[in-house]
Amino acid sequence: MSSGSEGVRETQGRLLEKVLEIVKREQLVTGIDPSKKVIEFMHPEELKSLLALNIGREGVDVNEASSTLEKVARYSVKTQHPHYYNQLYGGIDEAALTGAWITEAFNTNQHTYEVAPVFTLVEHYMIKWMVRLFGWSEGDGIFSPGGSMSNMYGMVLARYKKYPEVKQRGIASLRPLVALTSDQAHYSIGKAASWMGLGMDNVVPVKTDRWGRMDPEALKEAVKEAKEKGKDPFFVNATCGTTVLGAYDPLMEIADVCQEEGLWLHVDACWGGTAIVSRTYKHLLDGIERADSVAWNPHKMLGVSLQCSPFIVRHQGLLHESNSASATYLFQQDKFYDVSYDTGDKSFQCGRKVDAFKFYFLLSLHGLDEMERRVDAAFSASRYLSEQAGKREGFRLVLEQPQCTNACFWYIPPSLRGQQEDEQWWQKVGKVAPKIKEKMVKAGSMMIGYQPVPQKGLVNFIRHINTCYPTPTHEQMDQVLDEIERLGADL
In 3D, which of 176, 166, 181 has the Cα closest to residue 258? Predict the structure, then answer.
């Protein structure tokens, strides 16, 4: 790299221009041509050899650095591609990327108004906005580094609310605390129990119905059983949009059980919570206003860049009480401004990204009507895909209709049709989705996930996900089914 201030400035300018050139050329935020590949796949050792990763005593020149950026562009997965349906996130909206770039350039921390005046006010505004959005008259919140951490925040607050002395004394004097969640819930609930010292054995999976929704009667029975064993139920995690089936737990009935038993109700709405901005689909979240805390990930469905994960809580002041350490070098109470705007002490983290701004910038630029249009389009496309899959020979639905934007189905190749559907046959069917995925990735045409649900005896099936950006169309859904047929015809 060039030495001297002039050389450094020139290099910085060229590299920043190079990044912008790549983003524009590859249309990473303006709509990739569907005929281009989602991924140029290489096996790990091949890619490692091609990248030739190395850090030496001397830095590389700007041309070599530019070459590295080109390799990144060529061999990275284009999550912005209209045929990327692999995970619970996808393309990035240009407004969100603009917001992300400006915050990265300022490289500041969310913990105090002193170092992040604009971004602190934006986070305050966004928390209040979301508190109202989810149906509360008052509340609090924080932006965390992902849904898993937001779910753990909920569990930490639930424990503190019931046993505030645990902050100083620890859990040794308590009976074993039990968290309850559906058998289709996110694995982060178990991890949180491990980190918090509860133990994963004290996370009780509650039976779900055929749609993957928690059974409130089974929840009531599980609470009773835990108490009979001398344990102490304290926390229930309900899910709005499970990872695989996209199930929405019946919040009203679950809230009734929690109220009856004195349990904290946390709602993991990381995936399906975005339905809240749609007048057509927000009924899926009926009862969320009765929750004690909610986790939501706008980076999943709305096209905000990773990470954007607000955690909100109905109990004003509880975040600060639970997490405050009163570090005097950072949270001095005799500052010359209103220190109530210093939010860092209610966070477990010290260093925290200013994630609220890119979310605010997206919503303020486009408006809620546009967000609603995108959400409705994603839900509509998933319902259309499921409907068309149900009509085509060789396709079999796992569920008659998606609840969220998860469309789940098997593809039965011609070689397996018209046979006795015994256990051996299903084992063969379970090998189809992985092979189609392999062929799809190697071709670079699409990326779609697959998985089994062993709790329900379901072998591997295709799980197709729609996000709101780029906005999916019915025509693209037909292309998905065509491509699966093409790749699976000779299996």
Answer: 181
Q: Are 99 and 122 in contact (CB under 8 A)?
A: no
Q: Which two tokens stand for residue 87?
A: 């995970």
126 and 196, same structural domain? yes
What is the C-alpha separation between 76 and 74, in angstroms, rounded?
6
C-alpha to C-alpha distances, 383 to 60, 412, 468, 486, nearest whole angstrom: 51, 20, 14, 22
- Domain harbouring 310, CATH code: 3.40.640.10
What is the distance between the alpha carbons of residues 485 and 398, in angstroms, rounded to a whole number?
17
Are 278 and 427 part of one and the same domain?
Answer: no
Q: Are residues 137 and 152 in the same domain?
A: yes
SS3 268: strand
Domain identity same for 267 and 119: yes
In a domain, 194, yes or no: yes
Nearest to 365 by CA among 124, 102, 117, 182: 102
DSSP 8-state symbol, 305: P
Q: Has residue 73 been placed in a domain? A: no
Task: Please give the structure tokens belonging to residue 193.
Answer: 């129990």
Q: How many domains does the chain have?
A: 2
Helix ranges restricted to H, 302-352: 318-323
Can you name the residues that pair with 89 across neighbouring β-strands? Answer: 87
Structure tokens at 314: 């109905």
| Spatial separation of the C-alpha atoms in residues 161 and 164, rounded to whole Å | 6
Residues 343 and 471 in one domain: no
pLDDT tens-place string over residues 285-342? 999 999 999 999 999 999 999 999 999 999 999 999 998 876 565 556 766 777 778 7
In a domain, 3, yes or no: no
**pLDDT averaged per 10 residues in sequence order, the chain, 491 residues:** 57 88 90 92 96 93 93 96 95 94 94 90 97 97 96 97 95 94 96 96 98 98 98 98 98 98 98 98 98 98 95 96 72 71 81 94 98 98 98 96 97 97 97 98 97 96 96 97 97 95
On average, the pLDDT of the chain sits at 94
Range of the domain at 384: 369-488
- Beta-strand (E) ranges in 394-439? 395-397, 406-411
CB 117 within 8 A of CB 238: no
Which residues neighbour 375 within 8 Å (Cβ) at sequence distance 6 or greater? 274, 275, 277, 278, 281, 301, 302, 468
Q: Is the dihedral of CA 110, 111, 113, 116 positive or negative?
A: negative
Rounded to 5 degrees, φ, ψ at 180 are -120, 135
Contact 136, 145 (CB under 8 A): no
Q: What is the pLDDT of residues 122-136, one digit of tens each?
A: 999 999 999 999 999
Strand, helix or coil for residue 468: coil
| Strands, E assignment, 269-412 | 293-295, 309-313, 395-397, 406-411
360 and 287 co-located in one domain: yes
Residues 256 and 392 both lie in one domain = no
Position 343 scores a pLDDT of 82
